[in-house]
Design goal:
The chain is mainly alpha-helical and 262 residues long. It has two domains: 18-97 and 217-242, no CATH class; 102-214, Orthogonal Bundle (Cytochrome p450-Terp, domain 2). Helices cover 58% and strands 3% of the residues. It has helices at residues 23-27, 33-42, 48-61, 68-79, 84-93, 101-114, 125-141, 160-170, 176-192, 200-210, 218-239, 243-252, and strands at residues 9-11, 16-18, 21-22. It has a three-stranded antiparallel β-sheet. The mean pLDDT is 94.
């Protein structure tokens, strides 16, 4: 028989093992869900400071009101109330470049630069600002956006940004990804000619990258956070539905336009 290896979970008739620990005896009631999620991906148990920052990131991404992902989940639930999993999946499938995906995009973008640097422990803000200026210039020359810049609602500043920076600083886990992202926030207007706020999804990506989590998995953590938010959205839809009104508003106000004139 072939051998299928795993470092995650196994079980037999009497025990369940997860991450080399006895699930019932060593983990349940002793390890929080956020800590476990980190541990399963990173393959190491996080420190208390890392757990605090990681869970703060999850909280920051859990829900933002009637976003397209929340509306998709609510309308799917209205259409198929017998399929809770379908409604949650519909909301998660909308996680992409405009919603939720920015966390991964920013983390990958920053990591490509930080990964080429030598030791930055002694860098001051001036060194980070110099690197940030060159980074923004390069993006502009390439005709590409800087991920994590700008927000459709928080025009003068996303409140999640200073909160996550403060937590990372308090816990001693504010690293080079976050420092570069902060510097981009300070200097980008010199290149772009306008000032844009750093957004919460971007600082979340920087924080997760500083926690040394695989940048290829960062969107997964966004989806993990948003799953909790979608469950809350659907629970509220059960109590106080808006799905029927949204559907009726669009359906009753649909207007046919001849293709030749559209």
């Amino acid at each position: 028989m072939p051998d299928y290896t795993t470092s995650l979970g196994t079980s037999d008739a009497d025990t369940i093992s997860l991450l080399g620990q006895d699930l019932a005896g060593d983990l349940m009631g002793k390890v929080g869900f956020g800590e476990l999620a980190f541990w399963m991906v990173a393959r190491r148990r996080p420190t208390p400071g890392e757990v605090r920052l990681f869970e703060a990131v999850l909280v920051s991404l859990a829900d933002h009101g009637f976003t397209p992902t929340a509306i998709a989940a609510r309308l799917t639930y209205y259409s198929a109330p017998d399929s809770l999993q379908g409604a949650i999946a519909a909301g998660l499938l909308g996680g992409g470049s405009r919603f939720l995906g920015v966390t991964e995009d920013t983390g990958v973008f920053l990591h490509a630069i930080v990964g080429e640097l030598d030791d930055t422990e002694t860098w001051d803000d001036r060194r980070w600002d110099e690197l940030a200026l060159q980074t923004v210039r390069d993006r502009k020359a390439a005709g590409a956006f800087v991920p994590g810049l700008g927000h459709p609602v928080h025009k003068s500043g996303d409140p999640r940004v200073p909160a996550l920076i403060a937590i990372a600083s308090d816990e001693g886990v504010r690293g080079p990804h976050m420092k570069l992202f902060e510097a981009i926030g300070r200097v980008h207007d010199q290149v772009l000619g306008r000032s844009l706020p750093l957004n919460g999804a971007g600082i979340a990506g920087a924080a997760l990258a500083d926690l040394k989590l695989p940048v290829s998995m960062l969107r997964g953590f966004s989806l993990l956070a948003r799953t909790a938010g979608l469950i809350g959205q659907i629970a509220e839809e059960q109590r106080s539905p808006i799905g029927p009104a949204v559907y009726e508003s669009v359906d009753r106000n649909a207007r046919y336009v001849d293709p030749a004139h559209s």
